[in-house]
Amino acid sequence: MGKNYVDIENDRGETLRYRKHVNGRGLIANGAKVHPTALVEQGAYVEPGVQVAAGAHIGRGVWIEPDAVIGPEAEIAPHAHIGPGAAIGARAKIGVRAYVGANARVAVGSLIRDDESVGENERVATDPRGLRLAA
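Given the sequence above, the corresponding structure tokens read:
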């Protein structure tokens, strides 16, 4: 049986240890908290300090930077990038290759479409079709 972790060197020469999540085999850094019912697909990276709530779905190739929060039943589509300190609300959907900047907030139930970006510190709320609502 193979080992259940991977060591990866970061840009600063530090070695970070990632364990393979039981549900999906995505890589979870030491210091991240991922609920056992969340699905973290293989090829996804969850960095230290991240919190992923129950029922969330993290797709292949997703990168979630340190200290981000992913709410219950949120869906992060493949190859999306969630910046450091960002927060994704419950049942929100983040599209394929979408980018959510540092410290941005995506409201409960919002839809960020494929290839769409949410800027650093931006607050976004949408209707179910992805049309942005007035702040």
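Residues 3 and 19 are 9 Å apart (CA to CA). Try to locate this feature in the token string yourself.
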